[in-house]
Amino acid sequence: MSKGLPKRSENYSEWYNELVKRADLAENSAVRGCMVIKPYGYSIWEKMQRALDDMFKETGHTNAYFPLFVPKSLFEAEEKNAEGFAKECAVVTHYRLKADPNNKGKLIVDPEAKLEEELVVRPTSEAIIWSTYKNWIQSYRDLPILINQWANVVRWEMRTRMFLRTTEFLWQEGHTAHSTEQEALAETKQMLEVYAKFAEEWMSVPVLKGFKTANERFAGAEETLCIEAMMQDGKALQAGTSHFLGQNFAKAFDVKFQSKEGKLDHVWGTSWGASTRLMGALIMAHSDDLGLVLPPKLAPIHVVIVPIYKGDEELEAIKAVILPIMQELKSYGIVVKFDDNDAFRPGYKFAEYELKGVPIRMAIGMRDLASGQIEVARRDNLTKETRPMEGVAVYIKDLLNEIQEAIYTKALNFREENTFKIDTWDEFKEQIEKGGFLLCHWDGSSETEEKIKELTKATIRCIPLDAADEAGTCVYSGNPSTKRVVFARAY
RNA sequence: CGGGGUGUAGCGUAGCCCGGUAUCGCGUCUGCUUUGGGAGCAGAAGGUCGUCAGUUCGAAUCUGGCCACCCCGACCA
Hints:
The protein is α+β, with helices and mostly antiparallel strands and about 500 residues long. About 35% of the residues lie in helices and about 30% in strands. It is globular and about 80 Å long. The structure holds one RNA strand of 77 nucleotides.
């Protein structure tokens, strides 16, 4: 077994798969297209969950839980939504197995136990939730309903990739109901801002905020907002979506309320979601050929201390000096691991913690004890320096913040270096092969969008919220356009 | 669902063309020496060669079926 990872530049997919496995984040399971998230990977996800959940609470939302199964009749109620997901649904048709009379020790599906009505395993929960909201909402006094659910969903994709697209995945889905269109639109926008803030402040991943085109819109939504991030291979990754549902689901499930004025009207809805795909974004945005690079705010361990010693006496001497420093670090809320496992040598540990993305490593041996110094190494830029022991805890505390910033800045610079204004079709075809975001004029037609996708595999990632008005001509059709949109190849 | 590939110890592999019960590395275990960038030496354990059938005195190897996984498409909010 080779000790290093494959090189990012040689085969990005292979590098990604190896990194996910070697850093102990996840592995493929025996179940087709499904993934086992391992404890280390899950502890990162938990940090994401907690941060997002706090942000949802701050914006007035509460958590609830709805069933995994959606009766087919409910699922098909909102036609566009049902149609959009129909091709990727797992369906429960029976509720019992029995011994196979022809094959001892084996089981078969009991044909007697066929369900009257099939149950769809939720690919998303709008149907089951809106069918419930119908019973919860009568009056304007019942609104708004601001609920989030943490759940697993199943989408039977033909091809899967760890974290980015798995058959079953974990996510959160917010489902809100409002008395006015304006309020629902404001909610849609607000939650997009929450996702963008989370991506940038916690994950250190800069994102573009924008509208999806009609082609890329959520099935059943009036408008889909999204955040799009750039990975290190120049491809785009949709990291979160927020949908304005209009009155579509309210109409499909007959959810009406009586207003102050006594008028009966359908409620206005939103839904928004982000998934374990964020883990994929985190990995692909920052990591390098040595392994994972984690932003301090999401790192399960902030600092690892590796003692370098011979024999118990030296170890005790190191401990005597390091324990007070660890105490101080802990008092700042920093998670520190002191790795005195004698089974591995220092070099091995260095490589292992780099693979796992621990932001800061400190090494301390006899040499340092004598000089009153300690070695501090940064994972993000791989620099090492020797610091005086005195005041090192405060230094580390500040350094973690600096690393959080530095990773963001690096990713932002990368995105800017790989974002191009493209005005001709020849340039487009050339640049799309090299990757990156292409800012282009587009005539606004689905036909053009589809043609470009067919020819180049590039899709419109979003129409940026802050796109400036600028007269131009469509990069493909030459028809007039008023603003630039973002084209890229995507995961 | 199309096109290609792979299946041999926990992981990665050699052997297959040309049939004779399996190679090497990593990891694991034991012991000693080591410890400032993935330690060294010595010894040991670990295998229904994906599966079912066929050919053969004899199959990891040849033939056929099946299964699983990977890659490229199609698909994908």
